[in-house]
């Protein structure tokens, strides 16, 4: 599997199929081509840039757009899309995508949340939780883990990696911090040796 971190929560996953997850306002995805699907975890702009997504889909006419229930109204003007719920399974060629989900992690107190889909690719080869700490029921080989945001502190990210126990944890959701290396380094320091794998932005890596 190849992974390319395109900024913040946006990752290109290449398994045979080419899947782009969470193309948001803090990510650089405009030049990505030959996509099979675009998967959106939730409606927040840092995960869904509707204007640039329209241009991306126009440049990738063979790509399916997949969104959670709460996001469906935000993409009404875009090409046909699949609205998924937890328990759904999608297939793109030989690649499977299982949908997990629930709510976005709480920001504070009773501030209302929104739906959040989490995507498990190829039965655990890769897991993107969106803005949640959801632990899937199956084992995960490579986990994308958020390191910064108004809804988390770094200790929670460490606890999440330990709970999922992946072979590799790829840091993401760093777009609002001025010192991402600090957060990536602290995550690595508190997780098992060699577990945290930082990706150079924009460069494909075998993971």
Order of helices and strands: EEEEHEEEEEEEHEHE
Which percent range describes the beta-strand content?
Answer: 25-35%
Gyration radius, rounded: 16 Å
Low-confidence segments, ≥5 residues, pLDDT <50? Answer: none
User: What's the N-to-C terminus distance?
Assistant: 6 Å
Based on Cα principal axes, name the global outline: globular
Main β-sheet, spatial strand arrangement: 6-5-4-3-2-1-13
Q: What is the chains' assembly state?
A: single chain
How many strands, what sense, and barrel or not for the largest sheet? 7 strands, mixed
Task: Give the helix/strand class.
Answer: alpha/beta
Number of strands: 13
Counting DSSP H or I runs of 4 or more residues, the number of helices is 3
Specify the helix fraction band.
10-25%
Q: Calculate the mean pLDDT score and round it.
A: 96
């Amino acid at each position: 599997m190849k992974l390319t971190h395109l900024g913040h929560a946006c990752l290109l996953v290449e398994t045979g199929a080419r899947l782009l997850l969470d193309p948001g306002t803090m990510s650089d995805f405009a030049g990505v081509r030959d996509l099979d699907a675009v998967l959106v975890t939730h409606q927040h702009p840092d995960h869904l840039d509707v204007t640039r997504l329209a241009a991306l889909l126009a440049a990738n006419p063979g790509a399916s757009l997949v969104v959670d229930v709460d996001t469906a109204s935000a993409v009404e003007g875009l090409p046909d899309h699949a609205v998924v719920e937890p328990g759904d399974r999608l297939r793109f060629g030989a690649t499977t995508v299982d949908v997990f989900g629930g709510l976005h992690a709480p920001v504070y107190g009773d501030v209302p949340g929104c739906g959040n889909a989490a995507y498990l690719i190829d039965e655990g080869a890769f897991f993107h939780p969106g803005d949640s700490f959801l632990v899937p029921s199956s084992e995960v080989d490579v986990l994308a883990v958020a390191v910064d945001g108004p809804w988390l502190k770094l200790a929670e990210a460490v606890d999440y990696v330990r709970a999922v126990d992946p072979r590799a944890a790829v840091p993401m959701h760093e777009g609002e911090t001025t010192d991402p290396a600090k957060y990536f380094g602290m995550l690595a320091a508190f997780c098992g040796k060699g577990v945290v794998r930082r990706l150079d932005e924009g460069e494909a890596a075998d993971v």
